Give the backbone structure.
Amino acid sequence: MALQALGSQGPAMDPPPSPAHHRELDLYATAGAAACSAGIAWVRRALADWNLTGPTGHGDDAVLVAAELLSNAVEHAGGVRSLTLAHHHGVLQIAVTDPSPNRPRLRAHRPDSVGGHGLFLVDRLTRHWGSRPNGRGKTVWADLDLPS
């Protein structure tokens, strides 16, 4: 089970050493499902460019986490402002910024429910996740261990 660190700045993720380890996608003008689709395709491209996909399925976990964070921003927070990826020191951080100040909350998981599994999956697939204020909104981030 991942450590839930809501409200923290996240683990020590120093600024990446170069743009080759950091990318940001502005989705401010893209609405709804189009923002999710664009973000997912962008994450897949970045992971492939960084050679972070492979037979272990780790890239698939990163895409799933990004998709959940993006869809939660669209469904519960009024849309997506930006999507950021950064990797170094064996960690991939995925961060989604939205216009809502309301922090996500992990609720009791009910496997038989329709929907409501997003943060449960994020919690299970990541090392840490949380949120931090960002202007009038927030950024929800998740850290995944990279294969060695």
